[in-house]
Automatic annotation (TrEMBL):
Domain spans labelled DUF1468: 2-134
InterPro entries, per the entry: DUF1468 (IPR009936)
Organism per entry: Saccharopolyspora ipomoeae
Keyword field: Membrane, Transmembrane, Transmembrane helix
TM annotation in the entry: 30-47, 68-101, 107-125
Name of this protein: Tripartite tricarboxylate transporter TctB family protein
Amino acid sequence: MVVAAILVITDAIALPDTGKGVAGPATVPLVLGSLLGVVGIGLVARSSAELRSAAAGVPLRSRSALRLCALVAALVAFALLLPVLGYVVTSAGLFIAAALLLGAPRGWHVVAHGWSLAALVFVVFDRLIGLTLPTGPWGF
């Protein structure tokens, strides 16, 4: 996450200044890159502290590896289906799959939250900010 933060911030600084108002095209990437860096540094510190007290030679649980493979498969499916099904449908599927794979309780709440989050992100970025997201056959 720290490496990704450095890349995001470096790319954001390289964006051209439009000179229109206070918020330029680099504003959101700079904020997100900074937050990504703070979270990454926090995770590194936490992992370092836990690593000192961890038992040596503890094998990776097979279910953890299976969950990781399933999450990677969900990301690949998202990338492949995004141009076909549109942002809201594929993002909702990715959010739901990630939540279930990371241990969220099963039920309609996970589905409702996945669809709500995908729709909210679509409205904010596509409609309010004006960044065009893939719409799919349903127009969303």
